[in-house]
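Today's session is about reading a structure prediction critically. Students often jump straight to the picture, but the first step is always the sequence itself: look for stretches that repeat, for charged clusters, for runs of hydrophobic residues. Only then move on to the predicted structure, which in these notes is written as discrete structure tokens rather than atom positions. Here is the chain we will use throughout the hour.
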Amino acid sequence: MPKPKKSFGKAPAKPTSKTSPTSPLDPPFKPAPSELSNFLDTLTSKSHLYILHLDTYPLAFKRRVFAVPLLLNILILIGLVFRLQSALPTYFYLCLSILGYDSPANIDKKNMDRLALLGISGERTLMFMGDFLLFRFVGMWPWDFFLGKGGEASPVGWRRWCRFKDVEVVVRRSRRWDVPLFAKENSEEGGDTRGEAEKRDGVKEEWLQEGRQGKSFSEKVLPAVDKGWVKNKTSYQMLDQDWDLYFSGMIEAQALVDQGKNKTDDFRTSVLIHTERWGWLIWEVWREHEEGAEDEGSKKLQLIKNNLTAMGKENLFFRWIEIVQSETSQTGPFTGERQKKAIQKIREEFEEQGVGFDEFWGSVGGIEGMPGMEIAT
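Below is the predicted structure for this chain, in token form.
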């Protein structure tokens, strides 16, 4: 795959990882690791927060989800083309009329009363306004979807470069709610905060000091990295009023993985933010997710073993572990198809020993988070 072009914008300086001994960083952030330096160099704006995570949803599901906006935008585009074809002759005749040539759009003012003239004027005004709104606003949807906006990659461009993969790198970028976090000290109160003009290349240190107790952190960041939210949504379902998908960053990240400069695991769930003092900082959310999952997983495994032992089926517990280890130890990624095969083997093993698969897992709180069972959720 050819290396994608970098998105247009201001070239960022290389991230730094130096900290001042007199100004220690407040948790949960720390200097970004050197493994991410190549990726951080591709981020064209330092005045946003970025969230990384891995999308492990099955390929078929990702295709179905992406097909919805694809078909919708194709239908909109067809409608716009149809309207353009039908409206062009009308506008052509109007232009001829304005220039003084004979045209079907000419109005015989002498033989028309004032009410008829007002009707024609109103009709044409509504046509002009309707076409303007249609192409200015509705027309931007397929434009952004197929071509991108602001010199950045589009959803179609992302899929064209990266295709559909079992494990995909997802990069989200904060929307306009982040303006107060990066506002310059001399910005006017209530000024225009819709663009980048009043933003600096680093978050305010007060925001870092507030940490998890801060309003924007607790209301905007924490819900966006919640383990259940990240796990239960594929990338294109995460577009909302607070976070946008950064398709240029997703293309660059996948290119680095394909070129062997990064591993997929380098992009596990994390929050990236730039500061003027410390450079790029990272909150490795995935570490907290794994620590919590280990505690919950250990308790659940013990519950499963105890229940099977009480049923006189302790050997079934070890047989389940054996199947999972056998499937996951094979070469190559543990893809969705391989997970399905492993689950089918486990189901068959349960049924052979007279244990209802669905009933048993329902009695222990479901199969979420169990090794080798992710795809079943």
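Discussion point for the tutorial: Strands lie at 30-31, 50-55, 168-174, 243-245, 270-275, 279-283.
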